[in-house]
Amino acid sequence: MRMLPPVLYFLKWLAITLIIGALAGSASAFFLVALDRVTAYRETHERLIFLLPLAGLFIGLLYHYFGNGIAKGNNLVIEEIHRPSRIVPLVMAPFILFSTLVTHLFGGSAGREGTAVQIGGALADQFSRWFGVAHRDRHILLICGISAGFASVFGTPLAGTVFALEVFLLGSMRYQALFPALLSAIFADQACRLWGVGHTTYPVAAVPAINIALLGWTAAAGIIFGLAARFFSVLNHWLGARFSRHIGYPPLRPLAGGLLIVSLLLIAGTRYAGLGIPVIVESFTRVQPPETFGWKILLTCLTLGAGFKGGEVTPLFFIGAALGSCLSAVMPLPVSLLAAMGFAAVFAAAANTPLACILMGVELFGSGPAVYVAVACVLAYLVSGQRGIYSAQQQKDFKTGLWNDVSAGANTTP
Amino acid sequence: MRMLPPVLYFLKWLAITLIIGALAGSASAFFLVALDRVTAYRETHERLIFLLPLAGLFIGLLYHYFGNGIAKGNNLVIEEIHRPSRIVPLVMAPFILFSTLVTHLFGGSAGREGTAVQIGGALADQFSRWFGVAHRDRHILLICGISAGFASVFGTPLAGTVFALEVFLLGSMRYQALFPALLSAIFADQACRLWGVGHTTYPVAAVPAINIALLGWTAAAGIIFGLAARFFSVLNHWLGARFSRHIGYPPLRPLAGGLLIVSLLLIAGTRYAGLGIPVIVESFTRVQPPETFGWKILLTCLTLGAGFKGGEVTPLFFIGAALGSCLSAVMPLPVSLLAAMGFAAVFAAAANTPLACILMGVELFGSGPAVYVAVACVLAYLVSGQRGIYSAQQQKDFKTGLWNDVSAGANTTP
């Protein structure tokens, strides 16, 4: 491989990433359109949420009896990057696609990046079989799949690239896969757009010139975002462990979780069901009360902890934007800026991917708020603790000298 | 240190980075103003260039007899990050400041980031002495100094942060110093702006929507930028080695180099003397002929190889912008976009800092050209070879499977 002439190296990865990009981008396009339809249908047929427990039972049975070895989802893809053992089953793609749509149709509070990453990862990994990709290149394929999935589902190719390079290690980044990851991200994003599928835009108003006082407020907001992410990760793992411990038969967990979620949705309102894009957009212009992000944290952790499918990221956008919006009641920063900061920073902190989120901020909100978003993301990342939402993430370095729980979960990469 | 409660960790680094930022930012402000005056004076007194050989002799004598241990400049700062041995002498700051101004007054073709990085590094490293910073934190101080210097001299805090984290390793990045580096960069940038010192803006016109064909052209341009950077690095090292080999007494090297440079400036024209900001700005609107970047490569490598001071980065901006501008004669991309791509990508490739340059592109040109700039930077970085302008940079990973010269210079970090 190292002797391969440069031109062949380029052509090889160009061909592979074109195919990965076309497949993953088209899958994301289909997924996004289907998700839109499913969401619109649920919004006009609100009583569907009463069927959420049954939908949960169905997903539970599906994964229990036919999803052998793919239930770990995102963590499986990340684990295979670290310790390649066997090719990610292609069946992961239709399973996660279908069960995410079911989750959203009946009002579970979940995201979509998990779905896109798993579809991208499963598709990309098939090249290990077909094209005789060397064993040492297999992790690059998985990174390409993650990059393609993330980039196309959010319309952010640079954030997708850096997310894929950042997510499997904590506290460092390696550039070995930089070129294939970037190509996969751009091709997938292009493929999704060629299908005519667009992405939500978020209205960030004029950004004030930065100064020391505003920096202080930004840092304070960043710390609050990080603590919210920490709380989310802890609650997510804790609820998942409760379900596993108290309900021995896995298919019954989403059934029980579904019953809880429906009861809570009846109290909180259906704006917390599904992706919640309208509430995210609203957070950029209207100050949200604290219960907006509080309910979303609880409902998302219940949904995912119980075994529904979809991922954490869009709910984390929701939680961050609503929390930022809420903070604008007490902080002298515009509501849209605080919402944008929270949108990026809570996710940065929960996934331990600060640079990807800074770039995502640039791609979604332009370069104006970039320094604010960067300060919020880095502070949030610092205080969110070592263990994020992806438990398969390995710690290359200690995150900081900041928390003394670092040694607890420490393991280094081989 | 790991037991230090979070609040103390924050306050400690807040205090340290505030001081580093204030000092390095103020030094950059003074330096930029002085550089402006010196450049304006030379432009109205063009015959000063005839004194360049004598100015070279003067700088050579200064460093030979009084600059013991600081002549390695940027590489000394980078080496101390890897193998801390002794504190960077504070005298490095006035030496590099003064000799850079002399270089520019008499028309040497050099930059300013080397100066800013060395001033920042030397200032920051003094904390190792004064504040009882633990030995294991000393490299963080040096990273803060680089970050502060780079951020304030170019007005790009995010690029400064990532540059400082990226520059000392090749092929990977570690986040240990992320928080202090970001704070130092923002504080230094703010300090420089508080002195009323602004930065050049570059006019990037409307950016076309990306598609596969334009991506192909962008990749081709990126490869050309990378090869230009490779040529620059090779010529730079080669000329430096020639001077060392053929002229035994170091102070005579810049004297001889000065004679050569003056002769060439008489042929090429004084637009290649100094920083060359007007030519960079012109490259964004008017297509440049090939000799523009050709002359600049030759004159900069002579200037720095002979022992004049200042750094490589602004000349690399010049070379990249002029080369991109030149390529717009044959590529279906706007001249300002190609100039912006070259501006970022040639530097990314020569310094092996692709992510810093993507962020610099965003900070200088906005988010519009970001994907173009990213593709150009990553391609350029890939093809520029393992050895960039900073020979002290260590290789954490092989850059790619692309070049088989990788094993030649390979050494891994401890």
Automatic annotation (TrEMBL), chains A, B:
<keyword id="KW-1133">Transmembrane helix</keyword>
<dbReference type="InterPro" id="IPR001807">
    <property type="entry name" value="ClC"/>
</dbReference>
<dbReference type="InterPro" id="IPR050368">
    <property type="entry name" value="ClC-type_chloride_channel"/>
</dbReference>
<feature type="transmembrane region" description="Helical">
    <location>
        <begin position="317"/>
        <end position="350"/>
    </location>
</feature>
<feature type="transmembrane region" description="Helical">
    <location>
        <begin position="48"/>
        <end position="66"/>
    </location>
</feature>
<dbReference type="InterPro" id="IPR014743">
    <property type="entry name" value="Cl-channel_core"/>
</dbReference>
<dbReference type="GO" id="GO:0016020">
    <property type="term" value="C:membrane"/>
</dbReference>
<feature type="transmembrane region" description="Helical">
    <location>
        <begin position="370"/>
        <end position="390"/>
    </location>
</feature>
<feature type="transmembrane region" description="Helical">
    <location>
        <begin position="87"/>
        <end position="106"/>
    </location>
</feature>
<feature type="transmembrane region" description="Helical">
    <location>
        <begin position="140"/>
        <end position="165"/>
    </location>
</feature>
<protein>
    <submittedName>
        <fullName>Chloride channel protein</fullName>
    </submittedName>
</protein>
<dbReference type="Pfam" id="PF00654">
    <property type="entry name" value="Voltage_CLC"/>
</dbReference>
<feature type="transmembrane region" description="Helical">
    <location>
        <begin position="293"/>
        <end position="310"/>
    </location>
</feature>
<feature type="transmembrane region" description="Helical">
    <location>
        <begin position="252"/>
        <end position="273"/>
    </location>
</feature>
<dbReference type="GO" id="GO:0015108">
    <property type="term" value="F:chloride transmembrane transporter activity"/>
</dbReference>
<keyword id="KW-0812">Transmembrane</keyword>
<keyword id="KW-0472">Membrane</keyword>
<feature type="transmembrane region" description="Helical">
    <location>
        <begin position="209"/>
        <end position="232"/>
    </location>
</feature>
